[in-house]
Write a structure and sequence with these properties.
Blueprint (H helix, E strand, L loop, with lengths): L5 H20 E2 L3 E2 L4 H13 L7 H14 L12 H13 L2 H22 L11 H77 L4 H26 L21 H10 L3 E7 L8 H20 L4 E8 L3 E9 L11 H12 L3 E6 L4 E9 L2
Parallel strand pairs: 3-4
Antiparallel strand pairs: 1-2, 4-5, 5-7, 6-7
Helix pairs in contact: 1-2, 2-3, 3-4, 3-5, 4-5, 4-6, 5-6, 6-7, 6-9, 9-10
């Protein structure tokens, strides 16, 4: 809690002193009279005690209650509303807990009521007997209300800060996820097309002298593969563009419907790819659509780099609620091409993000198998 400003401390003390002197100088039967000096001193001590009410609320309330109880004992035994005590009890209710506030209020009520009854002319029959209890209850109730409102305000501010922190953390998490996804896309695109370009360049180099026509076809394939790589890179990098960029700079990412073009790109590089499909073909949606395309792309890329033969088999099985795709190629434990292993990790992550699964490994019959199960809508 921030410390109170100086006028929050001084102004209540000055006002309560003026109210106290006004009450001591006012008489119903005699008009205005000069108050007794000791009465002014007691009232002044109660008002001065309020200067420490924010630091020591309960002791100050006790001091003002004792001084308020002494005031009627000084001739001419005037019973007044003890303003300093009201302010002190309000501070206790505002700063302390409810039990402390009402305990202090009860003790103060008893003390001031006994002091008033002693010097009132009609004693218990006088309505002013209940006067201390009235203003004490009001002071404590108002103080508690203010304390509750401040507590609610602090809670609302804390919730707002927590919500802001949560939004920032969520934004950072989404940025991290997006970076991983884009890095995965870039890996798939670059690895796939560079592998095809390398294979086609090897074919062109081999046939350049003996079969120049075939070599020109291979070079033409390199040109087409390079253009496709640039298009996919542009589409992936386009995800980082701003909303006001021209529409022609944004191209959609490929989906499983482009599987035919993907397979043809491998075949044009001299890689034999056989595709079989069973069950009723259903379109994929959302993350599963891109995941299926990228998994087949990465599996064929790995087959061309690490396989012992230039052939692979893509098997698609539609089971009604899921697509089970399997890519197999000949391999041997001792044969491994260049690579970092990030492609296998990316395939598993893609399948997991789409609600499916992906496994990869060498079978006992010498076939390397990549199998993914992706949910259908």
């Amino acid at each position: 809690m921030s410390p109170p400003r100086w006028w929050h401390v001084v102004l209540p003390a000055v006002i309560t002193l003026l109210i106290g002197v006004f009450q001591l100088a006012s008489r119903d039967d005699a008009g205005w009279v000069a108050p007794d000096g000791w009465q002014v001193v007691v009232a002044g001590m109660g008002s001065a005690a309020l200067l420490w009410r924010h630091r020591y609320p309960v002791p100050v309330a006790c001091v003002t209650a004792v001084l308020g109880g002494l005031l009627p004992l000084i001739p001419p035994h005037i019973v007044v509303v003890e303003t300093a005590c009201i302010v002190a009890l309000y501070t206790v209710a505002k700063q302390a807990d409810r039990r402390t506030a009402w305990t202090t209020a009860a003790v103060t009520t008893v003390l001031l009521t006994v002091s008033s009854v002693t010097w009132l002319p009609d004693h218990l029959a006088d309505l002013r007997v209940v006067l201390p209890a009235n203003y004490i209850v009001i002071a404590v109730a108002v103080g508690e209300s203010v304390r509750a409102n401040h507590a609610l305000l602090r809670q609302a501010q804390e919730r707002a800060r927590e919500a802001e922190r949560s939004r920032e953390e969520e934004a950072r998490r989404r940025v991290r996820d997006e970076r991983v996804r884009i890095a995965r896309d870039l890996h798939d695109v670059v690895a796939h097309h560079i592998t095809l370009v390398n294979a086609q360049a090897g074919v062109a180099h081999h046939l350049l002298d003996r079969q120049p026509d075939k070599a020109r076809e291979a070079l033409s394939g390199i040109k087409d593969t390079s253009r496709a790589a640039l298009d996919e890179l542009r589409a992936t990098v386009g995800l980082l563009r701003q909303d006001d960029d021209p529409p022609e700079s944004l191209r959609p990412t490929p989906g499983f419907a482009d599987l035919g073009a993907l397979v043809e790109s491998f075949r044009s590089a001299g890689f034999d790819v056989r595709v079989t499909s069973r069950g009723t073909a259903l379109p994929l949606a959302g993350a599963a659509d891109l995941a299926a395309y990228r998994i087949v792309q990465e599996a064929l890329t790995n087959a061309s780099k690490h396989g012992t033969e230039r052939r692979a088999h893509v098997d698609l099985i539609y089971t009604g609620d899921a697509l089970r795709l399997t890519v197999t190629n000949s391999a041997s434990p001792g044969h491994r091409g260049p690579g970092t292993g990030h492609g296998l990790i990316g395939m598993r992550e893609r399948a997991g993000s789409a609600g499916g699964s992906c496994t990869a490994g060498l079978r006992a019959d010498g076939q390397y198998e990549v199998q993914a199960v992706l949910p259908l809508p």
